[in-house]
Amino acid sequence: MLSWPRPRSLQLRLSLLFVVLLVTVSGVYLLLISRTADDYLAENMQRRNLDLAASVANVLRIDSATNEIPPAAIAETFHAAMVINPNIKLYLIGLDGHLLAASAQPNEIQTRTVAMAPVQELLAGRQPLPLYGTDPRHPARPRPFSVAPLHNAGGAVHCYLYITLDGPAAASSEPAALRQNHLLGVLLRTLLVAGAGVLVVGLLLISLLTRDVQRLVAVVRRLQAGDYSARARGIGANDELSELAAAFNAMSVRTEQALDELRTTDTLRRELVANISHDLRTPLASIEGYTETILLRQHLLAPAEQQQYLETILKNTHSLKRLMSELFELSKLEAHQTVPQPEPFSLPELVHDVVQQLKPTAQTQAVTLRVEPTPAALPFAYADVGLLERVLQNLLDNALRYTPAGGAVCVQVTPTAGRLALQVRDTGPGIAAPDLPHLFDRFYHSDQVRRKSRGGSGLGLAIARKIVELHGGELTVSSTQGQGACFTFSVPVYEP
């Protein structure tokens, strides 16, 4: 079976739909005009012949002796009236609507009962014209009519003279001429001009509307082709299309950002693999070398040398273990697999505990490690104690690692804007300005030799930053080269 192809253009489909709707509305309008014209002609005919039945009824006389109209008088009157106006049919009907006499031939009559409701309404004169009554010759086609009562000698209604008028449906010359009158022509010309104007304006508006859609489609195709900087501009004006364009622009921005993040992540992944490989290669090579030396020269090495080699192997093993543990911890933080379990606790007490744990290390390095006095009635913090302890350990370990002998590391807790701020300051060599933006990157360090000599893995600050972010804070650093560094972050205050 053949089928017409569906138009693919939205503008063409909307135009076809608009034309179909316009033609349909015009057809309905023409039908209404036609029916209105028919009603107008019927009203005009009925109004002009409203007194026709009364004038004919004046000729008919009811015999007082028989209380009937002589059939000869009926036939003569009906014949004379139809000679004058061949388009009418005359009937005598009883009070119940039953036919008593008719000008039509008996074989033409299809029903012998006339509906009395329209008759009474026309006689009462309270209903607007036209009123359609039963046509005994064509019961399915009501006709405008004229009616008048016939009274007997006592003044009572004896019967009705019922005259059907040829309406618009049956008219031949007069209705046809009326349909061509000036009024109908004006209406049709008005419809034609208005329809043409609406068609032009509608097609123009559809073109303007679909122009924005076409522009949006072009931008989407640019994005599909790989141009992620494509944006929809100047589309719509506070309407659905403008909202769609805004949503597309937001989607494009997020897509571009996601791609940038993917590129950054890929770059970081490559750097991470390279750094891990580098950091693993050195201790593994050391372990391998010392192990082979012990195995090959076991009988030639003095006990003191063997002890030194074994201690070096153990030190490198601890370094590998620490590196793998920190990598695992950082990966869990970045994958959001670590969920904080906050609880109220005293932050100064936690600071004192961590400081006491690291004081032996500070004393060994001849570095002063102290806690600054805290304000009285300090509120409880609300955070994960274990994770926050890890942050403090990393910051203090980092500060002790780079503070020379005779220096100092200070920890201070202060309330600020509904949170508790914690600062870790040292008197070390400070951090160069170019290194500050990259300080929290994994494995980043401006001095790789110093990092290795100090035993750092380059992951402690990255871990600390992730933990602080989990608590809704931000780990920041300020430093002037040669004057030490200061790390600051804050945690929420417990509110019962």
Sum up the structure in keywords.
single chain, 496 residues, alpha+beta, Beta-Lactamase, Heat Shock Protein 90, 3 domains, five-stranded antiparallel sheet, 52% helix, rod-shaped, disordered N terminus
Report on this model:
- Keywords: Kinase, Membrane, Phosphoprotein, Transferase, Transmembrane, Transmembrane helix, Two-component regulatory system.
- It contains 12 helices and 12 strands.
- With 496 residues, it is α+β, with helices and mostly antiparallel strands.
- The protein folds into 3 domains: 132 residues, PAS domain (Beta-Lactamase), CATH 3.30.450.20; 93 residues, Orthogonal Bundle (Helix Hairpins), CATH 1.10.287.130; 154 residues, Histidine kinase-like ATPase, C-terminal domain (Heat Shock Protein 90).
- It starts with 9 loop residues before the first helix and ends with a strand.
- The relative contact order is 0.06.
- The N terminus is likely disordered.
Give a short summary of the structure.
It catalyses: ATP + protein L-histidine = ADP + protein N-phospho-L-histidine. This protein is an alpha+beta fold and 496 residues long.
Task: Please specify the SSE layout and strand pairing.
Blueprint: H1 10-48, H2 52-57, H3 71-84, E1 88-93, E2 99-102, H4 116-124, E3 132-133, E4 143-151, E5 157-165, H5 174-179, H6 182-224, H7 240-296, H8 303-334, E6 343-345, H9 347-364, E7 368-371, E8 381-383, H10 385-402, E9 408-416, E10 419-426, H11 448-454, H12 460-470, E11 476-479, E12 485-492
Parallel strand pairs: 7-9
Antiparallel strand pairs: 1-2, 1-5, 3-4, 4-5, 6-8, 9-10, 10-12, 11-12
